[in-house]
Amino acid sequence: MNCKVGTINLTIRHLKQCLAWLLEQKLIPDNPAEKIGYIPEDRLKTKWITDQQERQLFAETSTPFG
Predict the structure, then answer these.
(1) What angle is formed at CA 61 by the lines to CA 45 and CA 59, rounded to 5 degrees?
(2) pLDDT, tens only, 31-52
(3) Is 28 helix (H, G, I), strand (E, B) or coil?
(4) Which alpha helices (DSSP H) does the chain contain, by range?
(5) Which of 9, 31, 32 is nearest to 21 (CA)?
(6) Distance between CA atoms of 6 and 51, rounded to whole angstroms?
(7) Which helix (H) or strand (E) holds 44?
(8) CA 37, CA 16: separation in Å to the nearest integer?
């Protein structure tokens, strides 16, 4: 599978929550997901636009309105 880090972390969080609820309801003896950690995520990563997107942006902003 080729999933993004955010998707994997969200899946881990949902799994932890479901298993915690099952443990709370005494339907399972322990929560095996407690030992699973999250993957570090670089949320401040710079996102670049392509050269084509840059040209289009400048072309649209340089035309006069009306």
Answers:
(1) 90
(2) 999 999 999 987 776 678 888 9
(3) coil
(4) 5-24, 51-61
(5) 31
(6) 27
(7) none
(8) 10
